[in-house]
Design a protein that fits this description.
The complex is a heterodimer. Chain A contains ten helices and twelve strands. By secondary structure, chain A is an alpha/beta fold. In chain A, the strands form three sheets. Chain A has a six-stranded mixed β-sheet, sandwiched between helices. Chain A is globular, with a radius of gyration of 20 Å. By secondary structure, chain B is mostly helical. Helix content of chain B is about 80%, strand content about 0%. Chain B has a two-stranded antiparallel ribbon. In chain B, α1 crosses α12, α5 packs across α7 and α11 packs antiparallel against α12. Classes of the chains: A alpha/beta, B mainly alpha.
């Protein structure tokens, strides 16, 4: 085992309040290992949230959220309805700002960049993250154009290059074999499950680092959602995946890391096995046992 | 009243209500047919005298000599309508996009009622304003740059006044249409890194194509029939306009100006009825064709 001291990277500021009395130093195999509260035990987190507060029309939706999302793993954000899961997800790619009367304080660092930095280009942030919404939402164009949309927008005009991209990402979403003969058909003639995979492929086509899923399987039939889940498990080798989910079973099946939220606060976060088998907080325990939902 | 009676009474009322509403619907549909037939029978005398095609293609309008050529009037109507749409559509599209996509809610709250007020101004007021402002402006400022002489009373003046009249209509329909584009669709486009303008251009406008088309059809139908405001600024000379600075004489103006006068002339009243019938048929065909095109667009792109 190599040195596993969590060293804050250059651009990542770890406010001191993160390292409090529960910070323990342990010696493992003669190596120093620093154990900090669960939210900070992740090596090289791709997304770090620091003291994030979000107000929508004066309602305090997210309250002082501190969070690290691991790279190349699936993080499931769970919690009862209205706890701010979706808001948190939408803060990541700054889609939230399109609604009115939003106030955001705190920092969200994606790959070391503060996404709310004045000098940062919003499209650059969004390009880093593929979003999969609750209901599949194909653009009103052909299957081919849906995938080529992102790359075209970012300046790829060469038809042959686009062909390659379309094939690559339709294959990645497991859709190529099903649609290769009707690439020019309107995308909304596909079945709902196929549409959702198309949307996934569309997101992947701009080569993001993160995939955000907002209850991405909740409107799908069981077989389609299984396909999507399998895709997620497959994709986590290359992407960091954050999923908001209402189904605990789904989280149990695919999550590597769990974030449990309640009333706008992160109650508990940690490796999936730990949170599911041995939740530290009473609220988490109650939620997991179906005491409330 | 027993329970069974009460139930029977309720069901009777239900059936009665349904039948009354059905009857009223049929009546309002019949009205269109009745008007069409009435116009046809009223214009039958002139149709017996002259061939329809010769009247449609002839340019000479000399009721005293029994010559009734409708070509100038049809062309006058088309010129005014096309000019109006060409002016109004880009304006409406851009301001509609601004209002629904960019404008601060406060601005929207301010502008929306103003547009409704614009839509509610009586046409004659627009007509007077056209005579006082648009006509002299064209006659003194614009026309001299292009043609030797124009009094200002022209199809351009008619087109401008008409454009201003249909702008509020189109804008309010367009903002409705843009608002009906689901937010998820915008999010989907934005989340691959598209800018707002790219999203509008490639997604929202595309999704709204059938709606925009329908709005234009509605506006054109309105423009075809608009009478008083156009009549006041168009010059009303029965000639085929060759430039936008020429006077024109649209069909509705012809009817409104002459009906009830000189009725002693043979066939005159029948000729005016035929003008009305032509207008009626143009609007009917136009609406039918655009409906077919609309269905095609929707099917083609599966919007």
């Amino acid at each position: 085992m190599s040195l596993s001291l969590v060293i804050p990277e250059k651009n990542m500021r770890y406010p001191s309040e993160d390292i409090n009395e529960s910070t323990i130093l342990t010696i493992v195999n003669n190596e120093r290992k620093k154990v900090v509260p669960s939210s900070s035990t992740i090596l090289n987190p791709l997304i770090s949230v620091r003291n994030l507060n979000v107000f929508i029309q004066k309602n305090h939706i997210l309250k002082n959220v501190n969070l690290d999302l691991p790279n190349k793993a699936i993080t499931c954000i769970i919690g009862p309805s209205g706890c701010g899961k979706t808001t948190l997800l939408k803060t990541f790619n700054r889609l939230l700002e399109n609604s009115s009367e939003i106030k955001i304080t705190g920092e969200v660092l994606v790959d070391g960049e503060n996404i709310h930095d004045r000098n940062i280009d919003v499209t650059h942030i969004r390009k880093k993250m593929g979003l999969l919404s609750q209901r599949p939402c194909p653009l009103p164009m052909s299957i081919y154009d849906n995938i080529a949309y992102g790359p075209k927008i970012h300046g790829i005009r060469n038809k042959r290059k686009l062909d390659v991209i379309v094939k690559k990402y339709l294959s990645a979403a497991g859709l190529w074999e099903e649609v290769k003969d009707r690439l020019n058909a309107p995308a909304n003639r596909l079945s709902i499950g196929q549409q959702q995979r198309l949307c996934l492929a569309r997101g992947l086509a701009v080569e993001p680092q993160v995939i955000l899923g907002d209850e991405a399987t909740s409107s799908l039939d069981p077989i389609s959602s299984k396909t999507i889940e399998e895709l997620f498990v497959h994709l986590k080798e290359d992407y960091s995946i954050a999923l908001v989910t209402h189904t605990l079973r789904q989280a149990q099946r695919i999550a590597d890391h769990i974030v449990f939220m309640y009333l706008g606060e992160v109650v508990e976060s940690g490796p999936a096995a730990e949170v599911f088998n041995n939740p530290k907080e009473k609220l988490t325990r109650e939620y997991l046992s179906g005491y409330f939902s | 009243m027993s329970l069974a009676d009460h139930t029977r009474y309720r069901i009777f009322k239900d059936i009665l209500a349904r039948n009354i509403m059905f009857g009223l619907t049929v009546f309002s549909l019949l009205l269109a047919v009745i008007i069409g037939l009435g116009l046809y029978f009223k214009s039958a005398p002139i149709l017996n005298e002259h061939s329809l095609w010769s009247m449609l293609s002839s340019s000479s309008w000399r009721p005293f000599k029994g010559e009734f050529g409708f070509y100038p009037f049809i062309m006058g109507t088309l010129w005014v309508t096309i000019i109006a749409i060409v002016i109004a559509l880009p304006l409406c599209l851009l301001s509609g996009i601004y209002l629904s996509e960019y404008a601060h809610p406060f601005i929207k709250r301010l502008v929306d009622p103003m547009i409704d007020i614009l839509a509610g101004i009586p046409p004659v007021v627009y007509g007077v304003w056209g005579v006082l402002v648009v006509v002299p402006f064209i006659g003194d400022k614009i026309a001299p740059h292009f043609v030797e002489y124009s009094a200002g009373y022209s199809v351009l003046a008619g087109g401008i006044v008409l454009a201003i009249m249909i702008v509020p209509l189109i804008i309010s329909i367009l903002t409705e249409i843009f608002a009906s584009v689901p937010k998820e669709l915008r999010d989907a486009s934005l989340s691959v890194g598209a800018t707002k303008w790219q999203t509008i251009k490639f997604v929202i406008l595309r999704k709204s194509t059938p709606g925009i088309f329908a709005a234009v059809v509605l506006a054109i139908s309105r423009a075809f029939g608009e009478t008083i405001a156009v009549l006041m600024v168009c010059g009303n000379i029965s000639q085929v306009p060759h430039s936008v600075f020429d006077s024109g004489y649209p069909l509705p103006a012809l009817i409104a100006n002459n009906y009830g006068e000189m009725m002693s002339l043979p066939l005159y009243d029948s000729a005016l009825m035929l003008a009305a019938l032509i207008l009626f048929v143009i609007i009917l065909i136009f609406n039918a064709v655009s409906r077919i095109i609309l269905v095609r667009i929707e099917r083609r792109f599966a919007l």
